[in-house]
User: Which sequence fits this backbone?
């Protein structure tokens, strides 16, 4: 799941200041689960903005801002607005901007990470989408996303009492990997030196795409 | 094959090696490095030159090491994986060797959140074990990380670190073994205060025969004040028995007590089987190193 957090209301107010009619759009999937961008949050943002802004707001939401069939029903409302304030993740904001090339589409959220809900209002990062999964070697715990230094060959010297050197509130991924492999009786996996990895599958290779030609026979 | 470093020759001759550290200044002041180098010249066998330690911007370890060597102190260039990708790392390795540096210590590097620029991006393209393997592979096989040959490779004497006091405890031996398998020829440990725990660690090292595959130097940190030892105790991965902190707290002359504790630790550590040397860290009290080395009975340093 994509996790996001609402921007400070003043920052949102500053970004929408010059627009008189604003369409505020919530997103009903990932960011609803992280309690940052759903229908309720869209109304909350409208209420808070009304305290600091004279603009007129319409509030709506769609199931997913990242799919065209859901955006279609916004076309009319968007045409009447000066700008759109999107409570989707960065994907939704950009997809709306593509669909409405003549309308400013502004983000109300900061997209933070791919992670899970561990408690109400408590979410943690699990995956960085690096494009080359090694979870089979690390007991199902990701060192790329969850080790502060993305180490592949065990913990650094700063791991203490199961916590990372950056904070007592951050678990050491390698402690978790160690415990899990021990339980699975696979500690021998830790002896292997994992060589420098190919980061081309990650952001470092440039913007990525999945191009399944097998599913797109019309493309030569 | 070019001439070996003094450090390597001493280890290979079975001498008990004594090293310390030079922390480069947070400025372009070459004289600062020269003064620090002159203070320890002839008192130690080599000096680590740190690489933006605790993630604070300082003169580069390569530049400071070259300046220190011009004062007659052999250096151990520290290199971390925090600030450079494999292109920059290998480029620096070639340049450093071309400038006359011969020893390298491979580290992951403190996370940037410790320093003055927590807003910065970190790199960690490779980790410390992959760095160790890369430097060793260049030295031994003349290969870059990408497998291509290097015509005139850097032939560093490769070192790495181990922290016997970090968690998970069982993994630290494994990490040491991996670093040695990756090509580390000498190992510097985190500062030791808890000798009993360190002896237990060295027992495991000997059982695996790791002390016969790499030269292991025990780390010593000499504290100048109560605040210094208390701050040290807060560093992640550092184990200091409460008794030693209490001794500093109760002492009238903190400096004398700090020196005394360091000397006692050295006396114990140097007798542990499998220990080939001592590495002295005198953070903020570098001027004490000559006296500490003298009182520990390490002078004169051997010729080679």
Assistant:
């Amino acid at each position: 799941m994509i996790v996001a957090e609402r921007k400070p209301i003043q920052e949102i107010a500053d970004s929408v200041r010059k627009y008189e009619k604003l369409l505020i759009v919530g997103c009903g999937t990932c960011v609803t689960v992280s309690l940052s961008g759903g229908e309720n949050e869209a109304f909350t943002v409208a209420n808070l903005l009304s305290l600091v802004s004279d603009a007129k707001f319409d509030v709506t939401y769609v199931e997913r801002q990242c799919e065209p069939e859901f955006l279609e029903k916004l076309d009319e409302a968007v045409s009447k607005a000066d700008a759109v304030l999107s409570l989707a993740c960065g994907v939704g904001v950009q997809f709306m901007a593509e669909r409405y090339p003549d309308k400013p589409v502004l983000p109300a959220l900061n997209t933070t990470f791919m992670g899970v809900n561990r408690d109400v209002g408590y979410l943690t990062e699990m995956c960085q989408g690096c494009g080359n999964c090694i979870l089979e070697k690390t007991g199902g715990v990701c060192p790329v996303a969850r080790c502060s230094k993305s180490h592949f060959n065990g913990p650094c010297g700063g791991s203490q009492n199961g916590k990372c050197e950056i904070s007592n509130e951050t678990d050491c991924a390698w402690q978790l990997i160690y415990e899990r492999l021990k339980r699975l009786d696979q500690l021998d996996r830790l002896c292997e030196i994992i060589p420098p990895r190919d980061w081309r599958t990650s952001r470092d290779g440039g913007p990525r795409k999945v191009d399944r030609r097998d599913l797109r026979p019309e493309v030569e | 094959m070019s001439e070996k470093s003094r450090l390597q020759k001493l280890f290979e001759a079975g001498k008990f090696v004594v090293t310390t550290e030079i922390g480069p200044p947070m400025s372009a002041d070459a004289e600062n490095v020269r003064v620090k180098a002159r203070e320890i010249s002839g008192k130690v066998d080599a000096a680590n030159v740190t690489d933006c330690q605790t993630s604070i911007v300082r003169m580069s370890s390569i530049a400071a090491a070259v300046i220190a060597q011009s004062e007659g102190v052999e250096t151990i260039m520290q290199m971390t994986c925090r600030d450079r990708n494999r292109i920059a790392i290998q480029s620096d390795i070639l340049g450093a060797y071309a400038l006359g540096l011969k020893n390298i210590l491979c580290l992951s590097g403190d996370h940037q959140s410790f320093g003055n620029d927590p807003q910065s991006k970190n790199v960690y393209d490779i980790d410390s074990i992959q760095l160790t393997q890369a430097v060793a592979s260049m030295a031994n096989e003349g290969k870059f990380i990408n497998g291509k040959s290097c015509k005139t490779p850097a032939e560093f004497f490769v070192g790495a670190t181990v922290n016997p006091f970090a968690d998970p405890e069982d993994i630290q031996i494994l990490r040491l073994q991996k670093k040695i398998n990756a090509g580390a020829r000498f190992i510097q440990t985190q500062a030791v205060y808890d000798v009993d725990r360190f002896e237990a660690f060295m027992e495991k090292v000997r059982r695996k025969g790791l002390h016969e595959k790499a030269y292991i130097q025990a780390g010593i940190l000499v504290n100048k004040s109560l605040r210094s030892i208390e701050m040290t105790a807060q560093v992640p991965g550092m184990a200091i028995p409460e008794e030693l902190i209490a001794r500093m707290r109760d002492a009238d002359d903190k400096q004398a007590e700090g020196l005394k504790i360091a000397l006692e630790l050295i006396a114990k550590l140097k007798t542990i089987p499998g220990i080939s040397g001592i590495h002295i860290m005198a953070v903020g009290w570098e001027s004490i190193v000559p006296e500490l080395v003298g009182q520990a009975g390490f002078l004169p340093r051997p010729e080679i």
Observations:
- Chain B has one domain: 6-295.
- Chain B touches chain A at residues 81-82, 86, 108-111, 113-114, 122, 124-130, 133-134, 145, 161-163, 166-168, 170-171, 174-175, 177-178, 181-182, 190, 236-237 (CB under 8 Å).
- The CA atoms of residues 119 and 299 of chain B lie 45 Å apart.
- The mean pLDDT of chain B is 96.
